[in-house]
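Sequence design from tokenized structure. All designs in this work follow the same two-part layout: the structure record, then the generated sequence. An example of the structure record is given first.
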């Protein structure tokens, strides 16, 4: 069983956390937002704006997942705060709708952001990428005491051309939908028919 110590999260040896977009929204973000029990304690809670991506808990060699309370930039506005200590996150492309399996119900949305070092709008683009998940559709309309987002942060692979860079980013986005289970064995073998987010052989 995974366990959390402060902000550091550890999975049992031989396992990795690799959820689909739908699993992140339905099994984790929805449960967090409505104070339901989570399937496993594998996603820590932090305030994203207090960290630069290379200083986030968990090490920079792999993708990391965090719950973060949505921050508003101005008290009387609705714009989210995208600034951090040494730079800022900038949205790129269109938001992707996340639809529940077995129906056409929209349950969430995924926004892709790139981290820039320095002051906006003249910051220097980096290789750090964030996928920010939020509730959408009927789930978004229900009253909440606090608005949460779920963030997946990783460092994009470097490549020689801009075209290849864009392809890498698309591949990384598509990869979050490729696996049928949140936690799988590192050697890629599937469990014995267990579809839960935290399964073992």
């Amino acid at each position: 069983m995974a366990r959390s110590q402060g902000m550091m999260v550890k999975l049992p040896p031989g396992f990795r956390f690799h959820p689909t977009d739908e699993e992140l929204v339905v099994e984790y973000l929805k449960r967090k937002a409505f104070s339901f029990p989570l399937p496993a304690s594998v996603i820590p809670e932090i305030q994203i704006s207090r960290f630069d991506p290379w200083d986030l808990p968990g090490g920079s060699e792999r993708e990391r997942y965090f719950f973060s309370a949505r921050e508003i930039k101005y008290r009387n506005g609705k714009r989210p705060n995208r600034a951090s200590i040494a730079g800022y996150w900038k949205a790129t492309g269109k938001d992707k709708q996340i639809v529940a399996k077995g129906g056409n119900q929209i349950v969430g949305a995924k926004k892709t952001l790139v981290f820039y070092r320095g002051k906006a709008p003249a910051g220097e683009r980096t290789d750090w990428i964030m996928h920010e998940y939020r509730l959408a559709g009927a789930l978004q309309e229900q009253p909440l005491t606090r608005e949460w987002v779920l963030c997946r942060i990783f460092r994009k692979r470097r490549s020689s051309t801009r075209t290849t860079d864009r392809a890498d980013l698309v591949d990384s986005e598509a990869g979050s939908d490729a696996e049928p289970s949140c936690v799988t064995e590192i050697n890629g073998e599937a469990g014995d028919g267990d579809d839960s987010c935290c399964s073992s052989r």
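Residues 162-175 form the longest helix (14 residues). We note this feature because it recurs in several other targets discussed in the main text.
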